[in-house]
Write a structure and sequence with these properties.
Layout: H1 2-33, H2 38-49, H3 51-63, H4 68-92, H5 97-126, H6 131-160, H7 162-165, H8 167-181, H9 195-208, H10 212-239, H11 245-255, H12 257-273, H13 275-282, H14 285-290, H15 300-330, H16 337-349, H17 352-366, H18 368-378, H19 381-387
Helix pairs in contact: 1-5, 1-6, 1-8, 2-5, 2-10, 2-17, 3-5, 3-9, 3-16, 4-5, 4-8, 5-16, 6-11, 6-12, 6-15, 9-16, 10-16, 10-17, 10-18, 10-19, 11-15, 12-13, 12-15, 13-15, 17-18
């Protein structure tokens, strides 16, 4: 069990490191190499998120039937191959925005299928007793990789250019596929009713659950607004705040230490204060962390302020994500784990392509600064939803138990 989880842990950390490099490089390929407009940047961001609308629900139903390890290996290999075409196109001189759209779409499809398999796998490997620790370790190491990733990405972009830097992400996908392929714990595939019925069961479970539906709504609001910010903030920092790619990478890398801290303290906080209280207070981090970027001026002082704000955001975000993911898994029957992850992803991320497109369109007329400010203020809606929901008096009793025990908030 320890060996298998260590392989999953290492694979995820490696993949996250590569993803951080491409998250730095791909928008710069579009904005600096191909001179994409803000609207085209929004389209690029939307292309990677669009598969969530069409693939999530069937992916969850199929993952609950298939062997999850094989699903993860296959999707990692396909995504790595797609990413490999970016540096190849750059060397050949044929790279276009159309190709970037296609790569983003293919990788988005792979991630949408990979995600429910990966999210339900720690419970399979560890059992409910060690689940919270496992999720915290995965999040902590992922954030540690995120800490290194922007700095490495900035260095690679400065050394070889943004397009060629994407090669590192392609190699990370292949390495992760190899590690997961070495996991030994046997799985069995299951035959179920029709795919349509299984999809409906997963959707019905999340929507009808008295607590999960509110957590999902909060996550949907935050994801919608953050999609717009993510589509713009890298190019905004470089073009309007005049940060160099290396400076941006340093700010991202240093602030990512907050995520490491969040992963380390998540279990301690939930043990002391309970999962529901931790989720409620941690949900405030998003609006506080995103607000400074559109308000600061160019220069070192602005970089320090944004770095501190992003550090705070990542502490809270990691605590929130580890806690809410563990909560969802603990109140959901094992046979629904894949559909839980996929349905939640569908409902949470379904509107993110529109969020990215809308942000790009608004930025064309209002500018990136004002658009980012609107996005940051709007994030206040997320915690409002949670604080007005039954989550304030809910606590899971045991794995698979749909009922909650009231407690004082």
């Amino acid at each position: 069990m320890r060996r298998d989880f260590a392989l999953l842990w290492s694979a995820q950390t490696t993949s996250v490191l590569g993803n951080e490099i491409s998250m730095m490089a791909i928008p710069l390929v579009a904005g600096l190499v191909l001179n994409a407009s803000p609207f085209e940047m929004g389209v690029l961001a939307a292309a990677g998120k669009l598969p969530v609308l069409f693939v999530s629900l069937p992916a969850g139903a199929l993952v609950d039937r298939w062997r999850k390890r094989r699903v993860m290996v296959a999707t990692l290999l396909v995504a790595g191959t797609a990413m490999l075409t970016v540096p190849v196109g750059a060397v050949a001189g044929t790279l276009t925005m159309t190709q970037l759209y296609a790569v983003a779409m293919i990788v988005g499809i792979c991630e949408t299928i990979y995600n429910p398999a990966f999210q339900s796998y720690p419970l399979f490997l560890l059992g409910p007793e060690r689940l919270m620790d496992g999720n915290a370790k995965l999040s902590t190491s992922g954030t540690a990789a995120s800490t290194i990733g922007p700095g490495v990405g900035g260095f690679l972009v400065g050394l070889a250019g943004p397009a060629k830097a994407v090669l590192a992400d392609a190699l990370s996908y292949f390495a992760a596929a190899l590690m997961i392929g070495l996991i030994r714990k046997p799985e069995t595939s299951e035959r179920r009713r029709s795919l349509k019925t299984d999809m409906k069961d997963g959707l019905r479970y999340v929507v009808s659950h008295p607590v999960l539906r509110w957590i999902t709504l909060q996550s949907a609001i935050v994801s919608f607004l953050l999609a717009g910010s993510i589509a713009l903030y890298r190019v905004y920092a470089v073009k309007e705040l005049h940060w160099s790619p290396v400076a941006f990478g340093v700010v991202m890398g240093v602030s990512s230490l907050g995520g490491v801290l969040g992963g380390l303290v998540a279990r301690r906080l939930t043990d002391r204060f309970g999962m529901t209280r931790v989720m409620l207070w941690a949900s405030l981090c998003f609006v506080i962390g995103e607000l400074p970027l559109p308000l600061v001026s160019p220069g070192l002082a602005g970089q320090v302020i944004v770095g501190l704000a992003w550090t705070f955001l990542l502490v809270g975000a990691l605590v929130f994500n580890v806690t809410q993911r563990s909560y969802r898994q603990l109140v959901t029957p094992k046979e629904l784990q894949g559909r839980l992850a996929a349905t939640t992803r569908f409902l949470t991320w379904g509107a993110t392509p529109l969020g990215a497109l809308l942000a790009g369109a608004v930025a064309e007329f209002a500018g990136m600064r004002l658009t980012l400010l609107f996005e940051a203020v709007g994030l206040l809606l997320g915690p409002v939803v949670l604080w007005l929901s039954p989550l304030r008096t809910a606590q899971p009793q045991q794995p698979g138990d749909h009922h909650e025990t009231p407690q004082r908030a």
